[in-house]
Specification:
Radius of gyration: 19 Å
Strand content: 15-25%
Structural class: alpha/beta
Shape: globular
Helix content: 25-40%
CATH superfamily: Alpha/Beta hydrolase fold, catalytic domain
Number of helices: 13
Number of strands: 12
Distance between the termini: 35 Å
Largest sheet: 9 strands, mixed
Strand order of the largest sheet: 1-2-3-5-4-6-7-11-12
Number of domains: 1
């Protein structure tokens, strides 16, 4: 299995459409603009094995956990070929100039990349223009108060971005190429009205999987890497991610997804979703978050499940700083995503701590980690959200960004 895929890309000459991009000195909050970023890419994705596609597609008709686990365990042998994909896609973004201007930070931007079954509003406290409880759960608002511009995006296949083939196209390699294209546009001055000289890639969950893959494939793209809701232990959790919340074809789960192809899936079991994303102690997160999540949840693709199996990589050529921030009770990356069967797990202690062990992915980097107590997978949606925000931004300041 290759360490990762070296995929070529073609950068379109069309600049992102941006409104109200020029900053002012004083603001009541971040000044944000909804933008559309055209990207033209080519990538070497994985040829989807029929057995895995069948197992995932039949989750709602009786496929058992053991069968799915067996298929996932053997998928490395089943996937023999890559598949060339490419095209021009539209990526929906939210570009935000900060509330305050801090000398030296005007040319540093945070690229915010969400996980599965959510969209870019994850970084805005669950909603926009006003998130839950104002800006109390907004990463973007916190960054704005410290002088950081941000670009949050709907990933390929999500929300207001293009929805290409969910099995063949919406995979890790293609998404890495999309983000590489966007970073190139940021550095060239095609987004935001100026050239950004420093890029902080901030991922959450699957967005962090993509961050790890990006730092392996294009190590020079990223000046600082923040991986939240993440450890290197993704493969054992994949069956549970599919089974616990019972992922089904999205068009069967909600009318919102009626136009999506069958390879787009959504979580259909609300209790299972809650047990994966939050802690089992309701005093650790606002109960109102559940209603908001129920109204705004997004999808996941078969292609993402397939490519995730190969997407924990040792980034031998990445020498920059890395911070991993994960909740102590993260059921997705610190367990096997089956809390209703195994009980609530945690990330471990001492030498067995799974966040600490993730350092082996970055042998030449300056690696550090923070474990947030009383917190599950979706860190930004727990009462400890500002503890997460502070840890990340204190670290950015420490490394000079």
């Amino acid at each position: 299995m290759p360490s990762f895929f070296k995929s070529a890309f073609l950068l379109g000459s069309i600049a992102a459409t941006l409104v109200n991009a020029h900053p002012t000195i004083k603001r009541s909050g971040p000044t944000c603009s909804e933008i559309t970023i055209p990207v033209t890419i080519s990538a070497e994705n994985y040829q989807a094995p029929d057995a895995l596609v069948s197992a995932l597609t039949n989750l709602g008709t009786g496929v058992v956990l053991e069968e799915l686990q067996n298929v996932l365990n053997s998928v490395g042998d089943l996937v023999q070929d890559t598949l060339s994909v490419g095209g021009t896609y539209s990526i929906s973004g939210r570009f935000c100039e900060p509330k305050v201007q801090v000398a030296g930070r005007e040319d540093t931007i945070q690229l915010l990349v969400h996980g599965i079954t959510v969209d870019k509003n994850y970084w805005s406290g669950g909603g926009y223009p006003t998130g839950f409880d104002g800006d109390a759960y907004s990463w973007i608002a916190h960054a704005s108060k410290l002088g950081y511009p941000t670009l949050s995006i709907d990933r390929l296949g999500y929300a207001n971005s293009s929805h290409p083939d969910p099995i063949l196209e919406v995979q890790v390699p293609a998404q890495v190429e999309v983000h590489h294209n966007i970073i190139t546009q940021l550095r060239n001055g095609d987004i935001g009205g100026r050239k950004f000289s420093k890029i902080a890639f901030v991922g959450h969950s699957f967005g962090s999987v993509l961050g790890n893959s990006h730092s392996t494939t294009y190590p020079e793209d990223i000046d600082a890497l923040i991986l939240s809701g993440y450890t290197k232990f993704i493969k054992p959790t994949l069956p549970g991610i599919a089974v616990t919340p019972l992922v089904l074809p999205a068009s069967l789960v909600s009318d919102r997804f009626s136009d999506l192809a069958p390879g787009y899936f959504a979580m259909s079991n609300e209790d299972g979703r809650i047990s994966l994303l939050f802690t089992n102690d309701q005093s650790e997160w606002p109960e109102e978050m559940i209603a908001l999540d129920k109204e705004t949840y997004e999808t996941v693709t078969v292609g993402e499940f397939i490519s995730a199996i190969f997407s924990t990589n040792v980034a031998n050529d990445y020498t920059g700083p890395v911070q991993v921030i994960t909740g102590h009770k993260d059921q997705v990356f610190c367990g096997i995503s089956l809390p209703e069967i195994t009980g609530e797990t945690n990330c471990g202690e001492g030498d067995l701590n799974m966040i600490a062990q993730t350092a082996t992915l970055y042998p030449k980097a300056n690696y550090s980690f923070v474990e947030i107590p009383d917190t599950g997978h979706v860190l930004n949606l727990h009462y400890t959200a500002n503890q997460t925000f502070k840890a990340a931004h204190d670290w950015l300041a420490e490394i000079g960004l």
